From TrEMBL:
Organism: Methylobacterium aerolatum
Keywords attached to this entry: Cell shape, Cell wall biogenesis/degradation, Glycosyltransferase, Hydrolase, Lipoprotein, Peptidoglycan synthesis, Signal, Transferase
Residue numbers annotated as active site: 174, 190
Signal peptide positions on this chain: 1-26
Highest classification ranks of the organism: Bacteria, Pseudomonadati, Pseudomonadota, Alphaproteobacteria, Hyphomicrobiales
PANTHER family linked: L,D-TRANSPEPTIDASE, L,D-TRANSPEPTIDASE ERFK_SRFK-RELATED
Cited Pfam families: YkuD
Family statement: Belongs to the YkuD family.
PROSITE patterns: LD_TPASE, PROKAR_LIPOPROTEIN
Name of the featured protein: Lipoprotein-anchoring transpeptidase ErfK/SrfK
Domain L,D-TPase catalytic: from-to ranges: 81-214
Record pathway: Cell wall biogenesis; peptidoglycan biosynthesis
């Protein structure tokens, strides 16, 4: 099990402040949040060993209890191994055997940007690089064409890339360096999780895992 450094506080404040002040990077980026006015460094309580960067650990006492990782009863019809994202509740479920699920809090797309439907995990990434879509570039030609993975990258520590068939639909389940956005409807479409939570989910689900994203109580088949 990776070592947890309880007494070390990652030096995140400068990069987080720079990120919040930066121009929006696109589909997985947020608008500036009023919640970010709080002292960013107060959100962090240490780091968990990881490569090539340690994963910043969040003080989850700052979150509403319903957004903290926990095992819950699950009555849905999806089989074990399915990822179910409830946009309305801002929660992600990994269905388990025996009528339970692991539940995580998530941040979702702001009004008009939240995707829903069925997909699969087409690939997975560790501290992934970020790149804008062609649409983003057409709207903002000055966007950087790539951003290397790291603490100041909007995709965070891990990413699950959603596909339909062999087509990357450009929506992700990924980490975030804005933990205050969990439970909020802020992003431009992607589903974001605490870095420690997406790292946990990443280890539990394989490529080709089924993903169901619900809004208004049900998914829309595309």
């Amino acid at each position: 099990m990776p070592a947890v450094h309880r007494n070390s506080r990652p030096v995140l404040r400068p990069v987080l402040l720079a990120l919040i002040a930066a121009i929006s990077l696109g589909a997985c980026q947020t608008r500036q949040s009023q919640l970010a006015q709080d002292d960013e460094s107060a959100w962090y309580i240490g780091a968990k060993a990881d490569k090539p960067f340690d994963i910043p650990l969040v003080d989850t006492n700052r979150l509403d209890p319903k957004y903290r990782r926990q095992t819950v009863a699950y009555t849905g019809l999806e089989p074990a191994g399915t990822i179910v994202v409830d946009i309305d509740q801002r929660q992600l479920f990994l269905v388990q055997e025996g009528g339970t699920a692991l539940r995580y809090g998530v941040g979702v797309g702001k009004q008009g940007f939240s995707w829903k439907g069925e997909a699969r995990v087409g690939r997975k990434g560790v501290w992934p690089d970020w790149s804008p879509t062609p649409t983003m570039v057409s709207l903002n030609p000055d966007l950087p064409r790539t951003r290397k993975g790291g603490l100041d990258n909007p995709l965070g520590a891990r990413a699950l890339y959603l596909y339909q068939g062999n087509r990357d639909i450009l929506f992700r389940i990924h980490g975030t360096n804005e933990p205050w956005s969990i439970g909020e409807q802020m992003s431009s479409g992607c589903v974001r999780m605490l870095n420690e939570d997406i790292a946990d989910l990443y280890e539990r689900v394989p490529v080709n895992a089924r993903v169901v994203v619900k809004r208004g109580g049900k998914p829309r088949t595309i």
